[in-house]
Amino acid sequence: MGEDRRSACLLAVAVALQAAAVLGGGERQRGGGAAILDPRGLEKFVDELPDMPRLRGYGVAEGGALVAGNLTIGMYDTSWKFHRDLPATRVFAYGASRETATVPGPTIEAMRGVPTHVTWVNHLPARHFLPWDATLTTAVAPGARGVPTVVHLHGGVQHSSSDGHSLAWFTAGLAATGPRFSPPPYAYPNRQPPGNLWYHDHAMGLTRVNILAGLMGAYRVASPGEEGPLNLPSGAALDRNLVLFDRNFRADGALFMNRTGNNPDVHPQWQPEYFGAVVVVNGKAWPYLRVRRRRYRFRILNASNARFFRLRLSAGLRFVHVGSDSVYLPRPVATDAFLVAPSEIADVVVDFAEAAAGAAVLSDDAPAPYPGDPGDKAETVAVMKFLIEDAAAEEPPDTSAVPAALMPHYPRPDAREAATTRRITMYEYAKNGTDEPTHLYLNARSYMDPVTETPREGTSELWEVINLTDDNHPLHVHLALFAVLEQRSLRRVVEFRDCMVRRNDARACGIDRHLAGGRRHAVPRQERGWKNVFKVRPGAVTRMLVRFKPLSSADASPEESRFPFDVTTGPGYVYHCHILDHEDNEMMRPMKIVR
């Protein structure tokens, strides 16, 4: 074991011991002895889909000019009704006040080019109400009490001091702060293309627990001058965010999370994936929405810890994709069904005038975990229901449209512009003699190991992501956008994996030989634009062009190839698997941008 790795391990042990001493194992859940809820006892489609509160992320000066917005958003220990027949559930929630806090949190509406400043305030209690694992490298400070949190604006292009670095956490009243803490407010320049983002907790080792408790919300960047001519469905009633996630409950309404790990002698509480039997949309279990026979726009975010959704609609309806993650597509793509991984966003239009019935059910049939074992057939489960009504006589006709071209002016990905090629290898380690995982690494390094990825600002890189595990991992890169060029399966993958575990050297293990003749897998058409998350296929190599410069028009000037802040300063950025249980157990690496 090298000295850097030895130091990192000693630090991890010290952090774990401090965590156990300071925070304990989490408060006993209210009604901790209550039975786990059988979801079959909850009637579906009885709660109407809520539209979360909207907060304007900009100001309007005299004369109508837009100016920077200033928001204060708290994290509160409160309760939330997930279903008509379920008692109120204790949650952690974002809101402008405790009384207005919601799960998910308020939707922040920003304007392109107009900064939004947010002061995130931690009002959480001394101890977490959900169980967590002190043997993971966890956000905690010696001698302090309180639940650590930090907010990451996923898809945002911001200085790393406002990026929600996992070690920049803080507790209530700033009684304790992490080693990379940055004082408030967080500054979001919004100097990026219009599109969909989301914000969520990102505290080291606690992300899966804090998001499970409710700390997530949607964020939009609008550009009326660019988006208006598209004539897509617009307005609060016709343009809706759908935030999907899964949860388990106890019969008394309390959130349920396991207290015993799959390897309890290694990690007493951690399990490799969390799956819930209840599907929640905008904070309601299996809700319904009344719609007219016309076009609607839905910005669908998968905010689950680990569940993939493969979504389809009944009644002969289809989806028309207009955006993927935070960027519009060059042109629309129609699908009958599509797969969305944890943290991915699908921006779609649905025309209910095409429905063959008076109701349509949005359903999911993705295996959990994904992709599952070969030959497995997943159960089809309901997500939500649309009740389709004819338009009233006095209503104006639907004049919205989906144009043939959306945002074609963004540069097309070209591998020839790559300044360098990096190989990123995904490993899962198991306890000897079992197939039960103990931890997951990128490039055989823990998160606490020194930085090895140092991209140069203003360049693009070719990343070859080698997935040696049996899981599909949604890879997220902070600050950057990327376009996936190719996926190809490895041949004799077990042989290659065994060599890589020993040597961690793809060239020495003959990667070219193992790729030769490997099956190519097409990138779904709706995912061929610029993205910030992609589903990395198991037993395969995914080639992606990663862009470490702003996304602007193809004829941008050299000055526009740099970010509007100094990316070389601050705590730096990260890349990681967005299955939260993997991310919390070291499947994340630091990244330092240089010039």
From TrEMBL:
Membrane topology, as annotated: Peripheral membrane protein
Signal peptide boundaries: 1-24
InterPro entries reported in the protein's UniProt record: Cu-oxidase_C (IPR011706), Cupredoxin (IPR008972), LPR1/LPR2 (IPR052152)
Keywords, sorted A to Z: Copper, Endoplasmic reticulum, Glycoprotein, Membrane, Metal-binding, Oxidoreductase, Signal
Keyword Metal-binding: yes
Function summary: Multicopper oxidase that may play a role in the maintenance of inorganic phosphate homeostasis.
Protein name: Plastocyanin-like domain-containing protein
Organism: Panicum virgatum (Blackwell switchgrass)
